[in-house]
Specification:
It catalyses: D-glucarate = 5-dehydro-4-deoxy-D-glucarate + H2O. This protein has helices spanning 54-62, 64-67, 75-83, 94-112, 116-119, 151-165, 179-192, 208-217, 233-242, 256-264, 281-293, 307-318, 365-378, and strands at 3-14, 18-21, 24-26, 29-39, 44-50, 127-129, 136-138, 169-173, 197-201, 223-227, 247-249, 270-273, 297-300, 350-352. The chain has 415 residues and is of the alpha/beta class. The strands form 4 sheets. A 6-stranded parallel β-sheet has the order 8-9-10-11-12-13. Strands 1-4-5 form a 3-stranded antiparallel β-sheet. It is globular and about 60 Å long. The mean pLDDT is 96.
């Protein structure tokens, strides 16, 4: 079997509301690039990558000369064809490789008639649990609905998600407002759901000292872990020496060199494995095995997925014996998806691992066309900017937080 073509289509899919984070905002939609790898046997594999536009489409087009004629079964050769570690100093293709690996695994599974998890050694679970993944949110400018800013709004939103999807763990994406206020919010969540576990993630916005103070103030709660409270291995190592809560990261241990450093001189207890950031599902499986060997925890991380990447997360979670934490997913914030059958469904806080050959999902081409046209109409947005605070950008550590009492409602340009 040979690869004959690679097609990339950038789309934008609406969210229920604009999601705020410490570095900016998702402006009421996700921008993703869907990748299709075609073969001479008529089998097409699907991949997905965050971001997009002409740049992403050109980047994938630029890899055709590397991969047309390549056997999609030869995954190790493909990795070095486009991600040679020395050559990659000049062209960071890790996330491109991830999308292409997804597609090749999809092709292999379809060719052999087996789900991707069988290619990875077989599943040890058939459902993957997820956390609620709570965000502070801007209200819709037209309807005024969807805002999450006050403690009451946060608790109402969390109750609604738990009632609809059955979540038993709650992650608060934070670093938006002053830590003192977010501490009130986080403790209110703990009081509202005393039987559930929690995780707090300010995206490294806090200084070591502020993170230490915050961590000590939540040490009595049912914390899964304290995620990326501050930036850098050295800062996290200082925190780890002083806090009883496990520390987690998806920002400072995202490759094998960093993982080796963390094994030699521990700074982080839980490694959050992202199938895009690590360069594919197979890299995440290998990293999980290393973590198991050295007694490090793991969880499955979300980078803003549609159904194709969600499928990669489900197959990954299915094959990891040492996965004890629920996964993250932005997925329940989506208003729609581009896979046949629409959005996958949660049941008691979990999603079933796809059983069909390959990744187990198929493109809804009408939806793909609709959201490709929406992207062409709206264009992209600056993920690392806040439309409610023109001219603002965060420092690390951040000292300029949003005002939870007097928040503007920005125009997100959604029509």
């Amino acid at each position: 079997m040979k690869i004959t073509d690679i097609k990339a289509t950038t789309i934008t899919v609406p969210l229920e509301a604009a999601l705020r984070h410490s570095n900016g905002t998702h402006w009421g939609r996700f921008v993703r690039t869907v990748v299709e790898v075609e073969t001479d046997e008529g089998i097409v594999g699907l991949g997905e990558m965050g971001g997009g536009g002409a740049g992403a489409e050109l980047a994938f087009a630029g890899l055709k000369s590397y991969l047309v004629g390549h056997d999609p079964f030869d995954l190790n050769r493909m990795r070095y064809a486009i991600c040679n570690p020395t050559a990659s100093l000049y062209n960071n293709r890790t996330q491109l490789h991830a999308a292409l690996e997804f597609a090749c695994l999809d092709i292999i599974g379809k060719k052999l008639g087996v789900p991707v998890y069988q290619l990875l050694g077989g599943r040890v679970r058939d459902r993957i649990g997820f956390a609620s993944y709570l965000f502070f949110r801007y209200a819709d400018r037209r309807s005024g609905r969807g805002e999450v800013r006050t403690i009451d709004q946060l608790l109402k939103h969390a109750r609604a998600l738990k009632a609809e999807h059955g979540f038993h763990a709650h992650k608060l994406k934070a670093g938006v407002f002053h830590p003192d206020y977010e501490l009130e919010c986080f403790r209110a969540l703990a009081a509202e759901f005393p039987a559930d576990t929690l995780r707090y993630d300010p995206n490294a916005a806090l200084s070591v000292e502020e993170a230490l103070r915050f961590g000590q103030a939540i040490s009595d709660l049912r914390n899964d872990y304290f995620e990326d409270p501050t930036w850098g291995l050295a800062g996290m190592r200082r925190l780890r020496e002083k806090l009883s809560i496990p520390l987690a990261t998806n920002t400072i241990v995202i490759d094998f060199e960093q993982l080796a450093t963390n094994v030699r001189d521990p700074a982080v207890d839980v490694i959050l494995l992202d199938t895009t950031f690590w360069g594919g599902i197979r890299a995440c499986v290998r990293a999980a095995q290393i973590c198991d060997t050295f007694g490090l925890g793991i969880a499955v991380h979300s980078s803003g997925e549609l159904g194709i990447q969600l499928a990669t997360m489900l197959h990954l979670g299915a094959v990891l014996p040492n996965l004890v934490f629920t996964a993250d997913a932005h997925y329940h914030h989506l208003a729609d998806d581009i896979i046949v059958g629409g959005k996958m469904r949660y049941e008691n806080g979990a999603i079933a691992v796809p059983e069909a050959p390959g990744l187990g999902v198929e493109l809804d081409r009408d939806k793909l066309a609709t959201y490709a046209e929406l992207y062409r109409s709206l264009g992209g947005y600056a993920y690392d900017r806040d439309p409610g605070r023109p001219g603002w950008y965060p420092l690390l550590p951040n000292t300029s937080f949003a005002d939870h009492l007097n928040d503007a409602v920005p125009d997100l340009g959604l029509g």
